Each structure stands twice: as structure tokens, then as C-alpha cells.
Amino acid sequence: MKGKEKPMRRRTVSTITSYPEPKVIYKMITGKHWDYARFEDTWKEYECRDRCLMACGLTSAGRITAIIGGPKYRVINKCGCGGDVKRVRSEAPEHKDEFRWICQSCNKDFGRRKPDDLGKLIIEGEHHGLCKQNFAVTNDFITVNNMEVIKRKQDTIDKYGEGVTIRDPFRLPLRKGLYKEEYIHREQTIPFAWLIKEYLQVYMKHKKENERLFNFGRRRAWGIINYVTGQFPNWFRSQSEHFHGHYIIKDSVKLSKFVKVVNPMQVAHYIGYSDSDQLRDSSMSMDFEWIDGAIDNIKERIERHE
Question: What tens digit of pLDDT does each residue of 33-43 get?
Fold first, then answer.
């Protein structure tokens, strides 16, 4: 119907079959922009912000809500009596030591599998998203601190502690020559780090430390990313995990620690193999010539603004 906003069609990483090189993704991010011509004074800022949004997605492998913020959900399992239903070890003789869903008030046993009538989803708060204070910029790196982990179950938090809700600090390189030869492919992320630096240095410079980088919702982020790249927000998360798993980390345990996943099997399928890893000069397996040109273009934009 004309004038009615269309609902977002859910997309999952399981539908992704193509993993372009970073150079190709960079061209996707920078080759097309939303039409901000009517915003005479701010169109450059909006274009820079959009590039930063997608660069954050690729470099962090974070979910879109972790990047821009959004509602924080919690699943409430309630019995008909009003009591909480939890998956606990049964003490009943016929089900001794089995894990079953049991009401903590009336002790009603719902069985081993979670019934369909449980699992009410409520909004219990707000994810703050990435703010200016999450980034520490030096000449060599951008360090991302205290990035939230989204879709973390309460059972996991109870088992491992609040630490599983926050990512460990990770670095984004800003120049070549910082890594050992076996990690040379990290240099492919340098232009994306510069897209983030450009937004921080030019447009977030005078903002408050706790101010969000992206002051819009998930629907708006979906529209920007889909218009520019033809993809959906978590496409960048999948591309990032594939890139790290194939070229840099190559270990499901280490990759799971990077993205803060408790079970390494969740990212094991991103760990790849290539016979180019056996070459003496592994840098030849990917184009590195494009990096300097991309950085120079961003530096020119920053200088023009200053």
C-alpha cells in the first residue's frame, strides 16, 4: 500500500555464499551514498557517518545492535501460577538428575523440552551502542574498548559472569608494518580503520564522550546498508568472521574469544584453509597495493575539512 512502511525481511548469515576480498567490500562501502543533498550543511557528515557505520561492522564483527544500540530483550518463562520456570536438575525419582523445565513456585514439571507456551519476550532496557568513549586513537591504532555483546542468554551470564557481556579490547591498525608476517593480512583492515578515524576526528571531535556515534535505529541502519551495498547489517559480521577465520586467526577457539562467543563451534565453520598459507610470501595471496591509495583519499578529505 502506498505510504505504508514495508516491514524488514529477516535475513540470516546462513544465506551468505560469497565472501569478497576487503578491497571489494571497501569499494561497496565508498562507491555509493544515500542522497543527502537536501541537507545542505550536513550531507558530508552523514556520508562519513554511513561509511563509519559499515566499517565498524566489518572490523568488529559486531551485531548491528551492538554498534548502533537498541532495545535489550529478556525472555520470561512463567508458569500459570505466576512462578518462574527454569531448566534445572530434577529431584523426582522417575527423572533423577535429568535437566527439566520446572516451576520454582508450584514445582510443575514441564518436561525436558521447553514448551511452546513459555518464553515471553520483554524489553528490559536499552543497549547503548558504540559511543565516542569506546574508541582510543593513537598514530598506530584505534583501540575499541567495552563493546557490548548482544543476544547473551541469562543462563550464560549466570554461569560465566558479567564479563561475557563485554568484548575484550581489540585494535584496528592505522598503518602498515605493525604486524608479524604471519598476521600481515590485518593490514587489509587499515582503510576501514581510517573511515572510522575520519568520522571520530572530523565530526565527533567536539561531541561528549558518552555520545553515540550513530543516533538512529536499526531500521534506518538497515535502509542505509541495503541501499549502499544491497546487503543486510549482519552481512558485515559474517564477512568479518570469515576474513579473520581464513586469513588471520585460523583457530576457532581464538576466533570465539575475539567475537566473545562461549562455544567455539559457533564460529568453527569460518576457519578456512588455503594452500597459499604455505607460500614463503603469504602477502602475495591478496592484493595490498590498494591500501595506500584508499588511505590517501581519506587523508585528503580530512585535510580539506580542517
Answer: 999 989 989 99
